[in-house]
Specification:
Elements: E1 12-15, H1 19-30, E2 36-38, E3 52-54, H2 60-66, H3 70-76, E4 84-88, E5 94-98, E6 109-111, H4 112-121, E7 128-129, E8 134-139, E9 145-149, E10 154-157, E11 159-162, E12 180-191, H5 194-197, H6 199-205, E13 209-213, E14 217-223, E15 229-236, H7 241-244, H8 252-262, H9 268-275, E16 282-288, E17 301-303, H10 306-309, H11 317-334, H12 338-360
Parallel strand pairs: 1-2, 1-11, 2-7, 4-13, 11-17
Antiparallel strand pairs: 3-6, 4-5, 8-9, 9-10, 12-15, 12-16, 13-14, 14-15
Length: 382
């Protein structure tokens, strides 16, 4: 049997400074273990962190409780962001309206950037090493592993934790699986200072989310903090649909014209969500890993979040990543060897993720349905 170092004496490397990687590092530190987080970004302000997230009591909030950050999260979160509206596509009549009670905290919203900052600021200074784009993981199962970065740096680690998302480089050390396009594409549009500059859209969306669908396409709008709204234009199409139209995501006016034609039968008020955006669009074709995704347990490498179980972004991705991170950190704190901890973690995480992968397989297409609102498909996780 291969022996591995104890968690207390191990060099633990976490790849990816997203919510999953930072949650894992935070809980490890609370239990007296050390870890270094490596991220390809140049720093915490390098890129936009994305939209709003709803964290659930039985996963995301559970992880924040283990991280000692739940109360601070609840001070930052927006319970009013749980509001949900569904409109009829052709006449914009209101079909469904959920208005949460002020004390309801089942899934309060928080901007992804705020959550990342909350976790980042909780870590020992120097935990995150920026400008470290991983190229490959070398070494053998018996360890140590070698991390090869784009700048030529090579780092040794006793345990490598892949929290590096959909296109994980760490995953390649465990699995040959690659994400596949699921036939649904999102085009993201931003609206800034909405209450002043776009009052009609602000009123339409309210304090939470609003959606409309006609069976072939969907609009899903989310209010973020700071007076911002993001709209996801959801369609069933080829992943290269823009290129096939001779466009790229920077061709703002031609895209607006194309969308106006595709949504020409929709209510004028809803069509403004397509065309009144501030700045260019962001093209987001959706990918998922095979169902189920599994691998032979390795005492020197493991995965969490999208690196382990990429699914359609229907409100579970960050929640599962944070729960994975919490359970992995607690397993490392509670076992005598890295190998035992990794096996214990994967014995819980993999069956859970397989069940969720199966449940969400094909579910993104449900967003296009013009059937009455299904609250279980209400969340976009970007």
């Amino acid at each position: 049997m291969t022996t591995t170092p104890t968690p207390a004496t191990s060099r633990i490397a976490i790849i990816g400074a997203g919510p999953g990687g930072l949650t894992c590092a935070r809980i490890l530190q609370l239990h007296g273990l050390t870890a270094t987080v490596y991220d390809l970004a140049s720093g915490p302000e390098d890129r936009n962190q994305g939209g709003t997230l709803d964290l659930h009591p039985d996963d995301g909030q559970t992880a924040l409780k283990e991280a000692g950050l739940l109360e601070e999260f609840l001070r930052l979160a927006r319970p009013e962001g749980q509001e949900m509206r569904q409109y009829h596509a052709t006449d914009a009549t209101l079909r469904f309206h959920h208005h949460p009670a002020g004390h309801q905290l089942s899934a309060p919203e928080i901007d992804r950037g705020q959550l990342r900052d909350l976790l980042l600021n909780s870590l020992t200074p120097g935990t995150v090493r920026w400008n470290h784009a991983l190229r490959s993981v070398g070494g053998s199962v018996s360890g140590p592993r070698t991390l090869h970065f784009a700048d030529g740096t090579v780092v040794e680690a006793d345990l490598v934790i892949g929290a590096d998302g959909a296109w994980s480089k760490v995953r390649r050390a465990l699995s040959s699986a690659t994400p596949h396009y699921i036939g649904i594409t999102y085009l993201e549009a931003w609206f800034d200072d909405v209450d002043t500059r776009h009052p009609g859209i602000a009123e339409l969306v309210g304090q939470g989310s609003a959606m409309a669908a006609d069976g072939e396409r969907c609009l899903f709008a989310q209010r973020n903090g700071g007076g911002h709204i993001r709209v996801y234009i959801i369609q069933s199409d080829r992943a290269d649909w823009l290129a096939r139209a001779g466009l790229n995501s920077q061709d703002t006016e031609p895209i607006r014209a194309l969308l106006s034609d595709r949504y020409r039968d929709w209510a004028p008020g809803l069509r403004r969500l397509l065309t009144d955006n501030d700045g260019p669009y962001i093209d987001r074709p959706l990918y998922a890993l095979p169902v189920p995704h599994t691998w032979q347990s390795d005492p020197t490498v493991t995965l969490l979040g999208d690196a382990a179980h990429l699914m359609p972004p229907l409100g579970v991705g960050v929640n599962l990543a944070m729960l994975d991170a919490s359970e992995l950190a607690l397993a490392l704190a509670g076992h005598n060897t890295i190998a035992d901890a990794v096996r214990a973690y994967e014995n819980t995480m993999l069956p859970r993720s397989h069940k969720m992968q199966a449940a969400l397989d094909g579910a993104a297409a449900g967003l296009l349905s013009d059937e009455p609102f299904d609250p279980h498909q209400s969340d976009i996780d970007y």
